[in-house]
Batch of 2 targets.
Target 1
Amino acid sequence: MSTWQGFALTVLVFSTIASFEQLWVLRRALASQNWSRTVGRVIATGLAPVSLTDGSATDVQPLVRYSYTVDGVEHEGQTLSIGEGWWGLWRRRFPIAEDFAVGSEVTVSYNPRKPTDSALLVGAALSTYLRPTAALMTAAWALSVLL
């Protein structure tokens, strides 16, 4: 096995795993469009710092915590969107404080089979489609090198 084939095999394994994971996220994002809805209340907002494990890149992502009630049971959630791709694609920031002010009412979508699974923005953003596409294209490239 050549060095290129070894590299391609490694890329194939990891991109296949990434493809399945991203396709699962896409499936969940699309399914969230049909979830039940209820009224909830924002209990906290802000920007949470995120960074690569080596600290080489840092950024922020929106954080919105909310409470909602399903069948008399109160729940808390903090998923803004399934796939988390709504704000980063165009390098713009979500106006968190304006759109999700603490104390304001929000529509919470929740999985009727598992009410603790919820989100404020449902459906698939463009980036939710792009990630599995990129992973599948990478896997296809690796497979072409191996064949």
Target 2
Amino acid sequence: MAEPSRYVMYPVNFLHVSSSNPRFRAEINQALNWQDEFDTIWLSPTNNPQEQLMRLAKLKSLSDKFCSTSLDLTSQIVSEIRLPKEKRSFKPRSVNPERYVEQGILVEFCSDVERGIYGGDRGAYKAAKRHMVALQSLVDQKQPELCLPLTCVVTYNGFRTLCSAWIPDINARTLQYGLEGDKFVCRDQELNGKIERICRSVRVGPHNFKGRDNSSQTFYGPGEIEGHIVEKKGVKKFYLLNMGRMMPPISLPKSVQPRSCTAHVFETNGEVSEPSDCVVGQTAELFTSHGMREEGGVATKSGILFTNGGEHDIPNPRASAFTGREVRGKAIVLEGTGTIFFELHRPEVLQLGSRNPQNTCYFSSDALSGKFLTQSLFTPPRFW
């Protein structure tokens, strides 16, 4: 049996731990509120070195317990993955990818079957690791007023899962920062300031979101970021979620051959041009020749979709069939750009190599060119 590995995030270091004999422990049968325990320790005062040491010891103890439970859950789920759903010990909450909520933990399989945006499961595995790196970089900023989900990555028998503490208190009503339908909302000034400070501390700059109604909103972090405010027992907590794609994609030096992609053009009359090879970030001529602008890109199962159509334009059935979503008007799909989701800068590169904050949603392979997407690249898994 393959030896599983797990990564855990807590404010000491980024750890890798192994276990040679995982076994599902039936005695762990109560739904723990891991996040409440983590928040209590994370928000506790540290006025002197002794309190700091006590806080770190509690964090390590909780994180080790969380890792152990996540590993047991993953090993049990993977061992039954080939069984019919009615015969499994745990029933999935969703499929493609499969997600489970057990023992107060959200277990999500890292796979590329949902939209094909990573170019394969290998890319999805890398994206999970980048998620942990981003969380650790935020924790290292030591801003306890922002609560992050307790998270670990488990690799077992060829499968990888992203395990996060389930937060039952957040829902659509608590969302104060992030995508709400076709608009990006920033309702609470206090939360806005906290997110701006922590993003600037890791040298991540702002960018604009352009909605379908042409409304514009400047915000910090990745397009799928969520900020929630939960008030419980007189205590207000600020939660920051979906920060896995916080770091900007790696820019390739000019001496390196740029990444190529395939462009598909779908006309409104049903005609489809022959697929053409182009270079990621150097597609301005392609868009200009078809009277379109390279903005408003949305990730689909077949690539990044750009369209000039609105809700009153003619449907484009061939583009809709190709991308798996309703498309209206003329459309261009860039296939093979999934590396922008996992080939990301490490936090220390931004700290040492850049004076100015970098945008987290650059689409161009030349990350310093200032070209970025003005739409969320994909819909993240909701915690609510």
